[in-house]
Amino acid sequence: MRSLAPPVALTMGEPAGIAAEITLKAWLALRNTGSPFFVLQDFDHLSDAAGALSLSVPVISISRSDEASEAFNEGLPVMSVPLKAPVAVGRPDPRNASSVVDAIRLATEMAASGPAAALVTNPIQKSALYEIGFCFPGHTEFLEHLAGPGHRATMMLASEQLKVIPVSIHEPLSAAVSGISTAKIVEVARAADAGLRRDFGMERPRLAIAGLNPHAGEQGSMGREEIDVIMPAIETLGREGIDAHGPFPPDTMFTARSRAGYDAAICMYHDQALIPIKTLDVDGGVNVTLGLPFVRTSPDHGTALDIAGKGIADPGSLVAAMRMAIRIAGHRGKGFGE
Ligand SMILES: NC(=O)C1=CN([C@@H]2O[C@H](COP(=O)(O)OP(=O)(O)OC[C@H]3O[C@@H](n4cnc5c(N)ncnc54)[C@H](O)[C@@H]3O)[C@@H](O)[C@H]2O)C=CC1
Ligand SMILES: NCC(=O)COP(=O)(O)O
């Protein structure tokens, strides 16, 4: 099948992890679907990975994104971003960190200016990037910076069974808890409401707001954040016409019965959001950044250094990220659809 829409741009992610393997496997999964993508990666590294993993994927060098759709029918299109040092499987090398960041910048530019329908990012080893002075906690914050003033990035993880949006992202738990405020909850819930309408075509998303404390505070006897901070946020959102309810006890709000009552859960901190979705569906979960002027998704997992090079990495989440990026691009009127 051929596609008339622009291809999706995929970044290299951490070269010492499973990114090359899941990228090659994603091409095998998507090659006949009319959903072309190209990867910004070191050509030789990817070719070597295909050989080492015995994956029968022709790797095709392209120099412009508009060559990708045609090439995709024959093999995996690669726009080469050279690495600076040989890759040692499972051991990130800070000498390659600048190439990892360059790939993100380049792919973002293409997604923002049109040659790519969307940006999909492979997982990065954040600690390796910090060693070269990368000063963003993750892609989400970096992409917000690249998007420029006036754009606020909001992290959402989405699977068929659950969507979760953490109020704080990459913060120590103590800082996340002490930093909870009515204003932050309102801001994140507004972004979730707008993003679900714009990118998922929902008319009036139903938001479930999580509590923070056991039993959502048990009427204040196990913590007062629900009464003092979260409830005022829900009241503000209600006055704005946003369908937000809660605060719900965090231990029961992710059961199948509870999930049937809402479209997305607004969670008070990173792990409250990510533990349930990864437990339910780590191979189908997708990380989506709401609020950017370009489409960005990513697999929900990390670099998996412990299994790099073993040939056992599951590409499911990356494939789901590709599919979701294409669906969102369609919602944003980029003429894409499967
Ligand atoms: N979007 C991104 O760039 C993300 C990056 N990370 C980064 O990844 C690094 C490692 O993070 P961890 O917490 O160890 O999480 P991880 O997801 O890399 O690994 C956790 C466990 O899941 C397994 N696993 C992960 N993906 C898999 C796959 N596709 N198939 C089979 N097994 C898989 C790993 O082998 C490991 O046992 C950190 O530097 C973290 O910051 C983590 C999450 C997202
Ligand atoms: N745990 C999710 C995660 O770390 C992904 O972050 P980002 O790199 O997408 O900002």
From TrEMBL:
Cofactor dependency: Zn(2+); Mg(2+); Co(2+)
List each coiled-coil range: none
Name the SUPFAM superfamilies for this protein: Isocitrate/Isopropylmalate dehydrogenase-like (SSF53659)
In short, the EC number is: 1.1.1.262
Does the record's keyword annotation contain Membrane? no
The GO biological-process annotations, alphabetized, read as: pyridoxal phosphate biosynthetic process; pyridoxine biosynthetic process
Query: Any binding details for the cofactor?
Result: Binds 1 divalent metal cation per subunit. Can use ions such as Zn(2+), Mg(2+) or Co(2+).
Q: Which GO terms describe its cellular component?
A: cytoplasm
| Pathway(s) of this molecule | Cofactor biosynthesis; pyridoxine 5'-phosphate biosynthesis; pyridoxine 5'-phosphate from D-erythrose 4-phosphate: step 4/5
Asked whether the UniProt record includes Transferase among its keywords, one would answer no
Any GO MF annotation of the entry: magnesium ion binding
The function of this protein is: Catalyzes the NAD(P)-dependent oxidation of 4-(phosphooxy)-L-threonine (HTP) into 2-amino-3-oxo-4-(phosphooxy)butyric acid which spontaneously decarboxylates to form 3-amino-2-oxopropyl phosphate (AHAP).
- Describe the protein's quaternary organization and the partners it interacts with: Homodimer.
The extra comment attached to this record reads: The active site is located at the dimer interface.
- Family indicated by similarity: Belongs to the PdxA family.
Quote the protein name from its UniProt record: 4-hydroxythreonine-4-phosphate dehydrogenase
Lineage in the entry? Bacteria, Pseudomonadati, Pseudomonadota, Alphaproteobacteria, Hyphomicrobiales
